[in-house]
Amino acid sequence: MSTTSYSGELPAVIAKLDRCSELLGRSLSWLVLAMMLVQFLIVVLRYMFSVNSIFMQESVMYMHAVVFMLAAAYTLRHDGHVRVDIFYRGMRPKRQALVDLLGTLFLLMPVMIFVILTSLGYVSSSWRIFEGSPDSGGIPGVFLLKTLIPAFAGLMILQGLVEAVRHWWILTGRLVPLTVEQEPHLKERI
Length: 190
Hints:
Structural class: mainly alpha
Function: Part of the tripartite ATP-independent periplasmic (TRAP) transport system.
Largest sheet: 2 strands, antiparallel
Mean pLDDT: 91
Keywords: Cell inner membrane, Cell membrane, Membrane, Transmembrane, Transmembrane helix, Transport
Transmembrane segments: 28-48, 60-76, 97-123, 143-162
Low-confidence stretches: none
Shape: elongated
Subcellular location: Cell inner membrane
Strand content: under 5%
Protein name: TRAP transporter small permease protein
Distance between the termini: 9 Å
């Protein structure tokens, strides 16, 4: 995860979007704990009491989907997505900012727009019939689960805009990444 601090500030609207992404990601992290507790309860009920709950099993899947899809922007914010950085890690901050800006504009944004455009028909069909679980006793909200697809892409686009501005500001010198030497409290987070 990125531990970069910056001297300088982003524009107010962009900073607010960035804070919202941070808040959403931190809030969603609590679902991981809930998911673990429900999964533990499922195992205990199944193997100790021979009780099976499709609703509970599906709730774990729903929570996992929410965390995975809606926290992706938080992961982008913290530079936590997988990357092959053989050359990238040796680059200076401005060169890294250029690579990140181009990747955001020419890879992330087009793919997320494609995800939204191709998922809208799929999601609207599900909403039209209020699609529910195919299993008896399951969660009657598959249409809500499918809605996570365009929501994921929309959140990624918003965070992508934040990152594009951040990288542009680094390129233009209005934002300067601080190193561990310049920011001693960063050593604790590494």
